Amino acid sequence: MFKKILIANRGEIACRVAATARRMAIRTVAVYSDADAHANHVRACDESVYLGGSAPKDSYLRWEKILEAAKATGAEAIHPGYGFLSENEEFAQACADAGLVFIGPPPSAIKAMGLKAESKQLMEKAGVPLVPGYHGSEQDPALLQREADRIGYPVLIKASAGGGGKGMRAVDKSEDFAAALASCQREAINSFGDDAVLIEKYVQRPRHIEIQVFGDTHGDCVYLFERDCSVQRRHQKVLEEAPAPGMTEAMRAEMGAAAVAAAKAVNYVGAGTVEFIVEQRDGGAMNFFFMEMNTRLQVEHPVTEAITGLDLVEWQLRVASGEPLPLKQEQLQIHGHAIEARICAENPDNNFLPATGTLHVYRKPQATAFQRSRVRIDDGVREGGEISPFYDSMIAKLIVHGSTRAEALARLDAALAQVHIVGVATNVQFLRGIIATDSFANANLDTALIERERAVLFDREPLGLPLAAAAAIARQCITEWPAAMPEPFARRDGFRALGEYKRRFDYEFRGEPASATLTYKRDGSFWLEAGGVSGALVVGQFPSGEFEVEFNGGRHTLNVYERDGSSHVFAAQGATKILAVDRLAHAGDTQAEGGRLTAPMPGKVVSFAVKAGDKVSKGQPLAVMEAMKMEHTIAAPADGTVEELMFAPGDQVAEGNELLRISA
Ligand code: ADP
Ligand code: ADP
Ligand code: MG
User: Fold this and answer.
1) Nearest 5 degrees, angle CA 125-CA 129-CA 134?
2) Cβ contact 30:42 at 8 Å
3) Which of 208, 227, 236, 449 to mutate to test the pocket of ligand 2 (most atoms within 8 A of CB)?
């Protein structure tokens, strides 16, 4: 076994690899960029080496520098994590050439699976079922159009070099094909430097079910069962679970065998995932087709760890150091059910726009270690840390295990309720919303689940004004006016009538003005009117800091955090925020004014769809930006004429930079 390894990654996955290495008494070397100088992954390792600037190309993708760091620190092997260099066959080869072990498959296997089209040709030969489609090397647009027409619509055009849900276009009819092809190729060349595409039949109501495989250097390969990753947004996974609901023993064995055949066809070594798209037929039958193989550890590997009781990073290290696979196929077993939720810095109500900022509050559920770990959090951040625009938007992964799916689901919801984040927009409430849908609760899964449940998933308000106001006031009562309760009423805006004190509070709630009136009665009790509800308000605080609020027929245990004039309220049933208008002294107005269109976040301008002088109508796409690995379309807020473009494609822009100007 290795004595020291270098972890060529950052964030949660670098911390996760370091944890296993530590348990196995292997020393670790971290690498870091400017933005990560004080990051958790640096602290999690025994030593660290500085790589360079914050942008990945200046740090985590500089592989000569990483090889030098490994040499200089005496590391024998490099764990690439996922993303960055993990699927770069040149890097894997360079490690070997430098006498270092790349903890992953051989370069030839990475290469064989690197391009979706080529890998499909290989899989066809290996007898693995493929989605009907075209994956040839001929790329003449007229030929591609003919192939799409032959396959039959809807079809999916995919960048052969694509990944991370990028470079895909669904096409419903023949007339739309040419335009979709051009746009897909543009994105492909921009993001992956290669515009080759393939075409697949767009499977209806599909499920994404993938198989974890593991190969060793002795020619053995096993599968560690499946994960269902059907719940997706923008073709990216949001919730992942194992085992897949409705999976039969026969189908599991068949998919497992197909995945092992796929891996063996490329002499696979280490951890890999074979992704299948599964067609659901009436009557419950399911057909599976190979989509792609990811030649690395997957983000969602913890659900497999939870149901098998194994540490996949330990397996990676053992296999990379030449040991045989720790277990044989017949020794592997599934226990219970596990679900992972990806907690991301993003705004679901604004088309999942990634968010950046400081984690002013970051509280998480207690991980439990009693007997079997049933709540696990993998993260690479801490309170006070930054979510920067340089890397992806995943803050943490929350993984739960239960003896049944229903138990795991209930545990996940309870654990998500204990995730309190203030300072950066997150998808935590959205995740809880998904878990609560009938579709998810009944395991009626397919990749359109989020779309289908739109009505209940977006723009939800879990608490409502009365409780939000009661919570904000409860916090003020207890922490700001501790000694003498009537003190708030001594202020200018309080007044006295008939021996009672009254005070009005002005708020902004969900973008609308709102108010509440608190009365301090002669008997020393509070009476609150808010959002059309009025009643006695009883407040208290637990030693843990949580508030107890009784109002409107309910008793609630709440966490309330103050930030920039807003009270951020976390309750069992959800979270919300309420802004006290009178306390809004410093918060600047950051909204774009009419005519100015500003970058919603730091990033790169990919393209402009318009030029100066063009007439545009409301909602029309004007520009495409790339930030945090995603493309964002900037649309016209109103009808008008483009006056000026302030940047050129390829330019870096800062948040709030004016991109273009439109006159009415
Ligand atoms: P999974 O492992 O579950 O399939 P994803 O497909 O979402 O997860 O992405 C896997 C990893 O690859 C993630 O770390 C993601 O950030 C990274 N990734 C995705 N797209 C890109 C890209 N265009 N360039 C570099 N890394 C990427
Ligand atoms: P990536 O490399 O970006 O992960 P994949 O080929 O794995 O790309 O596809 C990502 C997602 O797109 C899948 O999980 C699935 O939701 C959807 N998808 C891919 N191929 C098809 C298809 N032929 N029909 C329907 N949906 C598909
Ligand atoms: Mg994929």
Assistant:
1) 75
2) yes
3) 208
Cβ neighbours of 130 (radius 10 Å): 15
653, amino acid identity? V
C-alpha distances out from residue 516 to 431, 481, 511, 648, Å: 30, 18, 16, 49
Q: How confident is the model at residue 9 (pLDDT cuts 50, 70, 90)?
A: very high
Q: What's the sign of the alpha-carbon dihedral 377, 381, 384, 387?
A: negative
Overall residue count recorded for the chain in this entry: 664
CA 559, CA 365: separation in Å to the nearest integer? Answer: 13
Task: Identify the residue with better confidence: 418 or 496.
Answer: 418
Report residues near ion ligand 3: CB below 5 Å.
275
Instruction: Note the ligand closest to the C-alpha atom of 229.
Output: 2
Choosing from 10, 252, 296, 503, the catalytic residue is 296
- Please report which confidence band the pLDDT of residue 604 belongs to, taking 50, 70 and 90 as the band edges: confident
Residue nearest to atom 22 of ligand 2 (CA): 202
pLDDT at 497: 53
Residue 458: what pLDDT? 96
In tens, the pLDDT along 115-161 reads 999 999 999 999 999 999 999 999 999 999 999 999 999 999 999 99
Q: How far apart are CA 254 and CA 370, in angstroms?
A: 36
Please name the residue whose Cα sits nearest to atom 26 of ligand 1.
Answer: 83
Mean pLDDT of the chain: 91
Give burial (CB, 10 Å; 0-12/13-18/19+) of 337.
buried
Q: How far, in Å, from the CA of 6 to the mean position of ligand 1?
A: 21
Known catalytic membership, residue 296 = yes
The pLDDT of residue 588: 34
Query: Which bound ligand lies closest to the C-alpha atom of 235?
Result: 2
Atom of ligand 1 lying closest to residue 56 CA: 25
User: What gap in Å lies between CA 386 and CA 37, rounded to an integer?
Assistant: 12
CA angle 629, 631, 635 (to 5 degrees): 150
**CA–CA gap between residue 13 and residue 21 (Å, rounded):** 12
Residue 269 in contact with residue 109, Cβ under 8 Å? yes
Token reading at 466: 């009365």
276 CA to middle of ligand 3, Å?
Answer: 9
Of 32-41, 185-194, 269-278, 516-525, least confident by mean pLDDT is: 516-525
Neighbouring C-beta atoms of residue 186, cutoff 10 Å: 15
Domains of the chain (ranges; CATH) run 4-103 (3.40.50.20), 132-201 (3.30.1490.20), 206-457 (3.30.470.20), 465-580 (3.30.700), 596-663 (2.40.50.100)
Tell me which of 392, 427, 626 to substitute to probe ligand 1's pocket, judged by most ligand atoms within 8 Å of the beta carbon.
392
Nearest-angstrom CA–CA distance, 520 and 496: 10
Q: Ligand 1: distance of its center to the CA of 163 in Å?
A: 7
Mutation pick for ligand 2 pocket among 228, 277, 298, 452 (CB with most ligand atoms within 8 Å): 277
Mean per-residue pLDDT, 177-186? 95
Radius of gyration, CA atoms only, the chain: 27
Its pTM surpasses 0.85 = yes
Question: What ligand 1 atom has the least distance to the C-alpha of 392?
Answer: 16
Nearest CA owner, ligand 1 atom 21: 164
CA of 307 to the centre of ligand 2 (A): 25
